[in-house]
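Appendix B. Extra example for self-study. Work through it before the problem class; the solution is given directly after the inputs so you can check yourself.
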Amino acid sequence: MLNTLWLIPILPFAGFLLNGLFGKRLGKGFVTAVALLASLGAAVAGTIAVVQYHAAYPTGGLHLNLVYNWIASGSIGADISFQLDPLSVVMLMVVTWVGFLIHLYSVGYMAHEDGYGRYFAYLNLFLAEMLVLILGSSYLLMFVGWEGVGLCSYLLIGFYYQTDYAPAAGKKAFIVNRIGDFGFLVAMFLMFAYFGSVDFAKVSSIAAAGGVEHWLLTAICLLLFLGAVGKSAQIPLYVWLPDAMAGPTPVSALIHAATMVTAGVYMVVRSNALFRLAPGAMMVVALIGALTALFAATIGIRQWDIKKVLAYSTVSQLGFMFIGVGVGAFTAGIFHLITHAFFKACLFLGSGSVIHAMSGEQDMRKMGGLKSKIPITYWTFAIATYAIAGFPPFAGFFSKDEILASALNNPYFPKPFSWLIWSLGTVAAFCTAYYMYRLVYLTFFGNFRGTHEQEHHLHESPASMTIPLIILAALSAVGGALLGWPHHHFLAAWLKPIFPEIGGAPEAQYEISPNIEYALMLVSSAIAVIGWWIARTRFRDRGLEADDQFARNMPAVARGMENKWYVDEAYGATIVRPLEGLSQFLWRGIDALIDGTLAIVGYIVAAIGDLLRFFQTGNVRNYALMFFLGVIVFIWVLA
Amino acid sequence: MNWNDMIYILPEVILTIGASAMLLVPVTGGRGAKLSAKWMMIILLAITAGALIYCSHAVENIDQSRQLQAMFALDGFSIFFKLLFIGAIAMLVMLSEDFLAEGKYSPWEYYSLLGFALCGMMFMASGVHLITIYIGLELLSLSSYILAGFYKSELKSTEAAMKYFILGAVSSAILLYGISLIYGVCGSLNLLDIAAAMSTIVTNDALMFGIMLLGAGLCFKIAAVPFHVWTPDVYEGAPTPIAAFLSTGSKAAAFAIFARIFYTGLHDFHLEWNYVLATISALSMIIGNLAAITQDNVKRMLGYSSIAHAGYVLLGVISLNALGLRGILMYSVVYVFANLGIWATVLMLRRHQYAGERVDDFEGLSRRSPLWAFAMVIFLLSLGGIPPTAGFIGKYFLFAAAVQAGFGWLAVIAVLMSAVSMFYYLRLVVAMYLREGVEAEFAITTPLRIVAGICLVVTLALGIVPSSLIDQAVLSSSHVAAHAALTPHAGR
Amino acid sequence: MLEAVPTTEAYLMLSGTLFAIGLVGVIIRRNMITVLMAIELMMNAVNINLVAFSHRFASLEGQIFTIFIITVAAGEAAVGLAIIIQLYRLKSTINVDEARELNG
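Solution. Structure tokens for the complete assembly:
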């Protein structure tokens, strides 16, 4: 398997081709079989590869599998080459297995939808592209996957193309991500121009060897981070992710929570050698992460749509991951990425199960008291909520705590800045516990507030949906303790080889003194408990009233939260409209330019004499004039 | 003059005779046989291609220095482009079938004009003497003017022809004036002699003037800013197969002479002209891409897109190194195939006489023909330069060449503008996949399917396993690169 | 050689002037026939240049080119007139300003 790593992405790609080309003709059974086999195949093949990798590289080296020389031309060659190293292994396991579970879940969830084949074709394609992204051994191949997952994401967001909002949401995701791609492309380009390579290993060793100018490293890091900001939905480019919930719920779980949106975090960790040498860039990463974590969490407090709450929660949790990688705790960032994949996938799938039970209703104001009606969903959801809120010993507790502890004790930044990041993160953690329990109490407790018909319809989801829920809930419960028990940190030991020794840069894995760590753990737990307690007292019995009261007491704040702090509107006014204007200007501008120039030249010609009367704007002649002026300008410039 | 020398232009001779014969067919009363015009043309193209391949093998034994008194070179560079042209024209013949079937136009005239245009393109590719290049260019242009106005009953088509004609004639005159000044300073019209004469000249105003005028004329042909204004108008007004022709074959021929003239003839004054061309290239990329964003008409959008692509190709001329030359060769191939695929789609989505030219016409294509929509996505990604499509390979070489030549800033603009271009390319993807369309009629015919299939396979294959194309481009460009005193290896 | 034979510079000035007149003619004249004539003027300016240089270098290349240009110009005029007729049929005018349906 190690020398045929390309098989892993090829399997789901084959699934895509089969379902895309023949899915419609061969029916649902065929589509289901192909899609599940393709994703399971990738997961099994990936696992075999990982086992073999571990046997071959017990200390965690870099395994390269050159498929072929893609571009072979002297100094500017590029290879198609896949790699396995401890980081890829982690990502591979998360992506394939969570991916498979969500494929499985989709079978039940999408059973009654039109476009069943289309859905699974896209989902398989997504898996293939995601695998290229995480297995590729260069930024170039990563970019191939990066664009590919983006494309699938747009297509799946707009899956319900008959609605008004879904295509618009897809388009928005697409446009916002272009801005991030600028960053990625230019960063790649700078690496190519100055390092002569875009291979991870080469770039990393060139940077680690020292001697690279500081501005260059900072520029590359910031540009890469711009790419990450787009893909991982951070301030200021997060606006697409909440809208992306227009897609089917399993898609939200897989693409917009567990895998694709974490690609930015993966990219930063992958580039850790560069980032560690550019503390300025890391400061930006940490600050953006912290601000996003808090900002999105506050918005989550006042949302009514169950998926919107989870979407803002995802943005906020991604912010936590960026705090982690931004303060140099790359392991903690990846740790949170993994636990988040478990509990957020579980939460999204759980919400999907709720929506399924509610016959498509997503508004929490119409729910309530579902606990007894859909018990499996409730229990799995509750476990995942413990995890995200940071209750010990659930998964989220360990990872979030590690991030916050590192934020406070990192060797990169001055103390006040570390304190700032930590406090922002801690407040965000509090908000997380609060909005999550608000969601749980509004949804599962109290009286049912929906229509009679909906109540009549309430049912637990089929096994293909509940089994993934149970597995993910189990992982949310114990995954954190297994992977990252403080000071017996399996993940830290596993990932150690991916951080090269760099002279002049701090260690990528730094020790935090146990006393401080335990103290901070207490703080984290306390915060989770307080958040839960407040939510419980407000919402458990009083339901919606609590929110009304909040709106009465602080109307301005409540309105701000409810309207997502007016960010979309601000974008409309400051970026979209001027850009449209600019584009319009340049389009019309060509005519206008000619007309304007003509007017000026017209006067000159008039001064000469009679020629003026021939002078009227008309297209061909204007074009000819433009030629003429173009030539004149060249010659003038050259002389 | 030795009859053996005629072997160099055997393909062109065959093509000229064939095209002339086709022009005479209606006179002799063969009017009824519409279908056979197409097959005649295909057969003629096949014979021409065969002759070309035969010649290319035969000339290896002939003394290269005596090539028709150094007016006409049958080297790797020209053979590369000629094969590309023949391929492009063959596909255009397939694309034209519906257009001809629906109008009352004589296919014989149409195909013979295409044949003459091809002949002009082939002369352009081989021209190493400014007379040859000019004659080829005019043969192509005159045929194109007529073809652009082939929709005789449509005002738009006539208007397009009129604009194209006036501006084309003016640009030819400007180009000629530039040539005359270069002749006046260098005393020759042969590119190698010009290069030799230029190497002894330090600076000369008349020469600079001439180079600029020549460059301006060439910029018109490739549609670079500020000589681009005709492009969207003519693409919109011309019959769609002809717009496809103008944006693919005709443009590739212009790239070929651009490269040939600047690499072989004018390389000594590199430092004088490269900044001017760099400015043109930057403006083309910026204005072309930004103006395309707001277009609702696909033909106009492709017009602006082709302006931007001219800007990318200019990178290869500006950098004046082996990589750049290879980049031009590869990009021409890549661009022709991706573009033809898109034009095939435009032709498939018919609405009245003018084919599917609005962005909304693409709506819902993914559900009505998933495979076709997928192919379209690949073509668009290729034009946008996204790996693993062929477009990425072409851009990779052009951008790398620019960096190597010290034009990093220009390459950055190029990268940014490629990212911008994805805005409007993927607008079509959004329309195809995220919208529900009902309006556009839908007529997939076998010839269209063949063309789209070929383009899809080529675009994907060259993107995934580009080594054959790269090797071919290295081989084909070595002769011209040697003229420009470039080492055949990457970098100087 | 007679003393009165003009220098190459003089020819250049003449051709430059003719070329400029032609170019300005294309830019300012609306009648397409006139535009066509202006284009011919530009072509002929080139011819003067080529012949003058050819004379100076005592090489035939320039004159050969001139003959080619004259031939091509004839072809170009034919195509141009055909387009004019076409335009006149459809629009009953040969004023280039009135054909501006394609823009933007």
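Self-check: Residues 606 and 613 of chain A are 8 Å apart (CA to CA). If your reasoning did not lead you there, revisit section 3.
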